[in-house]
Design brief:
The protein has one domain. The protein is 0% helix and 55% strand. The protein contains no helices and five strands. A three-stranded antiparallel beta sheet has the order 3-4-5, with no helix packed on it. The protein has a two-stranded antiparallel sheet with strand order 1-2. Strand 1 and strand 2 form a beta hairpin. The protein is elongated, with a radius of gyration of 12 Å.
């Protein structure tokens, strides 16, 4: 099981294509929230699934308006 500390993940902005570093809380199994791109400031809808058994984080990012 993941420790309660934050984990850093790399994501690609679906608006401008820039790579962003995001910190996620792995203590919650399924998460959906909006985070602004660090480059173009457009809203990114992020959906995360934490797989505690394999200690992996699955991330799906898309434009917030779609």
């Amino acid at each position: 099981m993941f420790a309660a500390d934050l984990r850093d993940i790399d994501i690609t902005c679906p608006h401008c294509g820039a790579r962003n570093l995001s910190s996620v809380d792995p203590s919650v199994e399924d998460q959906e929230y909006v985070e602004d791109c660090q480059v173009c400031c457009a809203p990114i809808l992020m959906h995360l699934h934490i797989d505690w058994q394999h200690e992996s984080i699955q991330v799906d990012v898309r434009r917030e308006n779609f």
